[in-house]
UniProtKB/TrEMBL annotation:
It comes from Romboutsia lituseburensis DSM 797. InterPro entries: PDZ (IPR001478), PDZ_6 (IPR041489), PDZ_sf (IPR036034), Pept_M50_Zn (IPR004387), Peptidase_M50 (IPR008915). It is a multi-pass membrane protein. The keyword Transferase does not apply. The chain crosses the membrane at residues 6-25, 90-111, 223-252, 264-283, 311-330. Its cofactor is Zn(2+). GO terms for molecular function: metal ion binding; metalloendopeptidase activity. This is Zinc metalloprotease.
Length: 337
């Protein structure tokens, strides 16, 4: 069942991506030959209004086949006959829909889990940690750290982290009494100093929406940093261990599905955002590569590049992406064994 959940998830993310292209192409009046979910042999298709809607065997992608997208066409409703702005909007729409989907998926996640409150009050003290050992308790209010006044949870985190592992002095308020506590932070797996405390979590729709936007922006920054590390070869542990292909992602989704719907929604949001961000990269065959060609066309005053040359470059880019996919899939399989 978890593998079925992973395939359905892939299908939804691909559908949303291609739906963005499809709707904006329709809005611009582009002739669309086929809207396909999946690649390879056709499993099912139906034709409506001159457009064929298909489901294909391999859930690894999809496409919207538009007149004049990869070749010269005299059809006034072809992709190539539309303005630069119209063509750019069609290309951006797919990744944009994936980014919006990521935000929408994160809202119920944060509604379920709650959002960390920025109050300087402890929501939880984790067992077998420095905070637990020195007697800190839930609902303790941190007033000072090393003599510095504390008013927010960020103040607590920042002061603990910058301790560099040295003992710190906490002044906390508990039951209308003030206590001075000495504690020595420990370094966690992410390399940050912690003492084993957690904030109070709030469950609020407006806060969840805001946090979904903020979280999406933060994850996007991390993804761009990761791409930079891939390019420079500075990925911790090596690129081969940091990148997952279809098999690896299905494994991740399957594990998330076993844990529960909230975890599955979070993983779906991350994958959707990945799909949106990666498609915006200026790589031939991806939406970002086509946007790059449009930018060059705009710089040249509207003078188009040779469609055949552009198609050849995109074909080479597609071949390289497929080679990368095979390599990553091979790495996925070797990790299984």
């Amino acid at each position: 069942m978890t593998i079925i959940a992973a395939i359905i998830l892939f299908g939804v993310l691909i559908f949303i991506h291609e739906l963005g292209h499809f709707l904006f192409a329709k809005k611009a009046g582009v002739t669309i030959h086929e809207f396909s979910i999946g690649m390879g042999p056709k499993l099912f298709s139906v034709e409506r209004g001159g457009t064929k809607y298909s489901v294909r065997l391999l859930p690894l992608g999809g496409y919207v086949s538009m007149e004049g997208e990869d070749e010269e066409s005299k059809d006034p409703n072809s992709f190539g006959k539309k303005t630069i702005l119209q063509r750019a909007s069609i290309l951006i729409a797919g990744p944009f829909f994936n980014i919006i989907l990521a935000i929408l998926l994160l809202v119920p996640v944060y509604m379920s889990l709650g959002i960390p409150s920025n109050e300087n009050v402890l929501g939880k003290v984790i067992e077998n940690t420095p905070a637990y050992e020195v007697g800190l308790k839930a609902n303790d209010k941190v007033i000072e750290i090393n003599g510095q006044k504390i008013t927010t949870w960020e103040d607590i985190v920042e002061n603990i982290h910058k301790s560099d592992g040295d003992e710190i002095n906490l002044k906390v308020s508990r039951d209308n009494d003030t206590k001075d506590i000495k504690i020595k932070p420990q370094k966690n797996e992410q390399g940050k100093y912690v003492i084993g405390i957690a904030p109070i979590y709030e469950k609020n729709i407006l806060t969840s929406v805001k946090y979904a936007f903020v979280s999406t922006v933060d994850m996007s920054k991390q993804m761009f940093m990761f791409v930079g590390q891939l390019i420079t070869g500075t990925v911790p542990g090596g690129a081969g261990n940091a990148v997952a292909g279809p098999i690896g992602v299905i494994g991740i989704v399957s594990n998330a599905a076993r844990v529960g719907i909230v975890n599955l929604l979070h993983i779906a949001a991350v994958i959707s955002l990945n799909l949106g961000i990666l498609n915006l990269l200026p790589i031939p065959a991806l939406d970002g590569g086509r946007l790059l060609f449009l930018g060059i066309e705009a710089i040249r005053g509207g003078k188009k590049l040779d469609p055949n040359k552009e198609a050849t470059i995109n074909l080479i880019g597609f071949a390289l992406l497929m080679a990368l996919m095979i390599f990553v899939t091979f790495k996925d399989i070797t990790r299984l064994f």
